[in-house]
Amino acid sequence: MSGLESIIGQLIVEFGYSRTIYPEIAKYIGNFTDKVPFSISEISAYALIGAAVAIPSYYGIKKLYKTLKRRKENDTLHFHDIFIDYKESFRRAKYRTIDAVKRFGYNIKYHTKQTFRRIGLRAAKTVGVLVLSATILAGIGAGTVLAYEGVYGLNYYRVPIEEKLNLQLEAPSQNTLIMFAYHLAYNINEDMYLKDKEPSFTPFEIGGIINKGVDDIIYSIDGIKVNSSHRVKTAFLREIFTFMRADAYTNPLIHEIVYDDRQQEYNMGFDAGHEISQLKGYPKENEADFIGYLACMNSGYAQIRLGAERKLFIIALNYIDSKQIRALLNNRLSLKAKENFDRDNRLASEKIEKSNKTWNELYDDSLKAQGIPEGIENYNKVLLDVLAYEYVKN
User: Fold this and answer.
1) What is this structure's pTM?
2) Is 140 inside any structural domain?
3) Residue among 185, 186, 171, 210 at smallest CA distance from 314
4) By residue range, what is the domain housing residue 347?
5) How far apart are CA 368 and CA 375, in angstroms?
6) Each residue of 252-294: pLDDT tens digit?
7) CA–CA gap between residue 169 and residue 386 (Å, rounded)
8) How many domains is the chain built from?
9) Distance between CA atoms of 41 and 312, rounded to whole angstroms?
10) In a domain, 172, yes or no
């Protein structure tokens, strides 16, 4: 696709879908799932797994019961034939033996033909079942892809946020990274102190604050508000986050957000901002992080700003080449900040160690298929967005 065709395609998606059709989709689906206090996607997954185990087990047990019942009835008949009337049983056994010898040659020929015939019929049936199953699965897969693109996926092809805000993304110098990380460390220490003086929020309340903040940021960018509501829900089975190596996840088909509540409370704001931004039409990881970061910083609450500052601080440290400078910057954090961050790091290390590598590879490939060439590394691009935004703003 040429550059001009790409631009035209982005504009068509931007104004023909992302700013017109999609806000209505997000509004109606999001407002419906928001009323359900538990995770619909998680319960649905448990139901499907239970059905996959229960249905075959039921029919298998039913078939086994019928087989055992039939054998028992046959055994009873055989017992009667042999022991109730001995003479009749002996006579029958005699003629059956003679008849079996006479029919021996015929039976070999007949059953050989029948066996090959049955094998052929079974093979044909098996092939037919496989073809039918493959067709059904392909139809389900195609329908799922179309549904995904229709209710969410097309947003990947809208005009990039960097072009809307005229952000020039460039690799920052080491001095810029050090200054930015130093500034973040100062803010982290201050907000770590201030957060204890604020009232604590429930996940539902934090979701409401961030939902409004994301709406305001998107309105400042696109001039529209996606009036959808998205409750931040917790999972019954937390191990799913370890498997996925994630702090939260979004189900784009039903517009639902599920959060790992093993984390520190101050991380919820940034994670919620990321997921809500995706459901409001910005699915690219760096763009969702960027909007979520701005929503947290504009929230007016230290405990919500803190998670966004921590995330950017970690990314900035990873971009700094010198280990000594990274250690010095890390030492700029207060003792309280270090203790809290150590707990975050232990949970993150556990997820890295126990996460499913195949899942991560598939997720990386799915991002690349959606036009994000760097895949999972796209998360780190938020640092470039924030630095470019701060440069334009100042």
Assistant:
1) 0.75
2) no
3) 185
4) 3-35+153-393
5) 5
6) 888 888 888 888 788 888 998 999 999 999 999 999 999 999 9
7) 9
8) 1
9) 30
10) yes
